[in-house]
Amino acid sequence: MDMSNRPKDIAKDIVKDIDQVAVVVDWLDACRRHELGPLLDLYASEASLECNCDGGNTYAGRAALESYWRPRLEAFSPNAFGLEEITPSADGVMLDYLSFEGKPVRIVFTFDASGKILQTRCGPYAPATAPDVVGARDHAW
After folding, report:
1. What is the pTM of this model?
2. Integer Cα distance of 72 and 93 in angstroms
């Protein structure tokens, strides 16, 4: 008898998604508060960030992430780090938000087994506004 779809297993998947979403909310809150240490603490030690906002550069490890985030957190825009949409996915969490410059960005988070951010991939995107494309997902890269 296949018991892979028991409600208990579904509940575990939901809890996993809620935990990952909570980490992303903590990430966004640290950005809004311009708190570099708490932001970096959300990342795994071997984490990487692929940024297609600045030409497709990749940053790996805490020191590289710090050099990426420090100037962005020190910059200020009145719309910086505004939440647009947050969506759990099979691979992690997708977040549409306003960058440190107030520009729309899509970032995809994947996590390690302990719930730390393992990888992020971000890039600019254009939010759907026309009635015939509402709900269509745009790719950030």
Report:
1. 0.77
2. 22
